[in-house]
Amino acid sequence: MNRNRGAAVPMALGVVAAACFATSFVLNREMSVAGGSWLWSASLRYLFMLPPLVLLVWVRGGLPGVVRSLRARPGPWLGWSTVGFGLFYAPLTWASQEGAGWLLAATWQLVIVAGIVIGGRVPRRTLAVSLLIVAGVVLAQTQNAHGMGAGTTARVVVPVLVAAVAYPLGNRKLLGRDGLDGVQRTLAMTLGSLPLWVVLAGTAGLRVGGPGRGQVVQCLIVALASGVVATTLFFRATDLVRDRPAALGAVEATQATEVPFTLAGEALLTGVATPSPTAWTGLALIVGGLCLHALHRPPPEPPATAWASATPARPEVPAPRPPFARTP
Fold first, then answer.
1. In degrees rounded to 5, what are phi and psi of residue 281?
2. Is residue 302 over pLDDT 60?
3. Which of 19, 37, 17, 18 lies closest to 28, judged by CA?
4. Which class for 276: exposed (0-12), middle (13-18), buried (19 or more C-beta within 10 A)?
């Protein structure tokens, strides 16, 4: 892939993923209002994700690679998957008991700044545009924030802040691991976080009994739309730009579009208020920031010097591999 190509295509994948991610905010809130346990909402999503992901990876011929990587490095997969998926989704579903989907989606945009900080050195332009998007999110949600108490706000902001840090951290720690692509990595991380979801499901069964039929159906929708489609698309987008910090930050910034998608979803299901002029200004800043990210072209890399190009590359000696890690 040309390193100097813009981030428009990966960002388009990110926006589609954001639309699917928005189903989590909308339906988790719906399940919470209907009395469903957040423990079932969190665990069922990943338990339902597993069969279609295994089938998808198997059809694409990528299952042996996932198995080899998990067997070769069980510790990193178990640990960082629990961070990237577990500490991401469990706090989000818990917070859905306290605040509307739009509030969670707005607070979730802290993931943009978290991704930039975790990624290390990022061009000032990327940081400035990402902060512009965050400012737009704040403006878009101003009308909805009025009247909320400090306690309720904290019970939403704190767990979502944990999720916003955990998601990009776990994602980046496993990005490109053993050459797995986005779909393979989604399956590997689902398997790596599986012990947590089994524990949460068992706890839910002991505390509240089994889930209702409506919650099962809604969790299945979230698992397919947000868990399978959105996650694989987003991981594919980050894979395409993983060696370009500015483009990677731009792709992660597409998650800001979850706010208008969530507002639209809640408008259809619960009838939220029409955005005020201030809110429309915020939405315009979000769209404008995404356009600035997509239209940016990083400067070309300087050509290699004569002495460097004339120096023959030293062959690398591959490290010994265990028998089960052989390439098929």
1. -60, -45
2. no
3. 37
4. middle
Query: What pLDDT score was predicted for residue 225?
Result: 94
Over residues 208-235, the pLDDT tens digits come to: 999 999 999 999 999 999 988 998 898 8
Of 16, 6, 15, the closest CA to residue 295 belongs to 6
Count of beta carbons in the 10 Å neighbourhood of residue 220: 15
The answer to whether 190 and 66 have CB atoms below 8 angstroms apart is no
The chain-wide mean pLDDT, for the chain, equals: 81
For residue 316, pLDDT beyond 50: no
- How far, CA to CA in Å, does 157 sit from each of 103, 106, 319? 9, 10, 45
Cβ(78)–Cβ(195) below 8 Å: yes
Helices 150-173 & 101-108 angle (0-180, nearest 10): 50
d(CA 266, CA 311): 61
| HSE-CB of 30 using CA atoms within 13 angstroms | 22
**Dist. CA 256–CA 38, nearest whole Å:** 24
Q: Does residue 168 or residue 259 have the better pLDDT?
A: 168
Q: What is the pTM of this model?
A: 0.77
Distance from C-alpha of 241 to C-alpha of 115, rounded to nearest angstrom: 14
Give the separation between CA 128 and CA 173, rounded to whole angstroms.
Answer: 25
**Residue 313 clears pLDDT 60, i.e. is over it:** no
Residue 46: strand, helix, or coil: helix
> How much is the pLDDT for 304?
40
Q: Which two tokens stand for residue 202?
A: 């068992």
What number of other Cβ atoms are within 10 A of residue 160's Cβ? Answer: 26
DSSP string of 114-131, one letter each residue: HHHHHH----HHHHHHHH
Q: How sure is the predictor about 317, in pLDDT bands with cuts at 50, 70 and 90? A: very low
CA distances from 212 to 91, 136, 225, 309, 322 (A): 21, 38, 20, 66, 47
Q: Which two tokens stand for residue 308?
A: 């460097």
